[in-house]
Specification:
- With about 240 residues, the protein is mainly alpha-helical.
- It has one domain.
- Helices cover about 80% and strands about 5% of the residues.
- It is built from nine helices and two strands.
- Strands 1-2 form a two-stranded antiparallel ribbon.
- Helix 1 packs antiparallel against helix 6, helix 2 runs parallel beside helix 6 and helix 7 packs antiparallel against helix 8.
- The chain starts with 7 loop residues before the first helix and ends with a helix.
- About 30% of the residues are buried.
Length: about 240
């Protein structure tokens, strides 16, 4: 089962896949952080761990269902000459979910409804947040697993990569959540990029592939610029 440990190419594949899984999980961490911010402080860390635990379980379960995943690429029907498969449907529905949820969150932040909802914590239940995180996990898990299937030949390599990547995400989720909570502009920026990711998922569902490198580069560039703005604002606040 572990014959690949003597193969340098397999190790390169493992480390490359771990890196990609972490990158693919950044959107998941950000969305989980934003959703968990609606819960009382003492429940947020538990919700993040449970949510990422669901992400790990769903990805491993999908890896053990490789045959089913391959069948999802079989066309079910056509729309304007474009063949739509089960995978395409999941990507399109997931993209629409991301766009709708992110747009709603931006609206609540702009109109001030977000503060009211945080004050009235009874309006948001722990279970409802976990359900929303689970839906998101399924969407990103499919994308992640398909990436793993395309990069590695051994299922144990894929499972190790998923476990390590989610472990890193669990360790980093708290710091990322605190950073997003304390910087509202970062939250709006993150939600805006989640809309972009949703559009990319829908486009991918219609076989119009937007290179993820462009998306992640723009996210990283905007984050660096906004981080510089935050540093400048903090220095000005200290002077005043």
């Amino acid at each position: 089962m572990f014959e690949w440990i003597y193969s340098p190419e397999a190790w390169i594949s493992l480390f490359t896949l771990i890196g990609l899984e972490i990158v693919l999980g950044i959107d998941n961490i950000i969305f989980i952080a934003i959703l968990c911010a609606k819960l009382p402080q003492n429940q947020r860390n538990k919700a993040r761990i449970v949510g990422l635990g669901f992400a790990m379980i769903s990805r491993i379960a999908l890896l053990f269902s490789l045959f089913l995943i391959m069948k999802l690429t079989t066309p079910i029907f056509s729309v304007f000459g474009n063949e739509i498969s089960g995978r395409d449907l999941i990507l399109i529905i997931g993209g629409l979910f991301l766009i709708l949820k992110s747009t709603t969150e931006i609206h609540h932040s702009v109109t001030g409804e977000e503060e009211n909802r945080q004050t009235n914590t009874k309006s948001v239940s722990f279970a409802s947040i976990i359900v929303q995180i689970s839906i998101l996990d399924i969407v990103f898990s499919l994308d992640s697993v398909i990436t793993a299937v395309g990069m590695a030949d051994h299922i144990d390599i894929m499972i190790i990569a998923v476990v390590v990547a989610v472990g890193v995400m669990m360790l980093a989720s708290g710091a990322i959540s605190r950073f997003v909570d304390s910087n509202p502009t970062i939250k709006i920026l993150a939600l805006s990029f989640l809309i972009l990711v949703g559009v990319a998922l829908i486009a991918d569902g219609f076989d119009f592939h937007i290179p993820k490198g462009y998306i992640y580069f723009s996210m990283a560039f905007s984050l660096v610029v906004e981080s510089i703005n935050i540093i400048i604002r903090n220095k000005k606040n200290k002077i005043l």
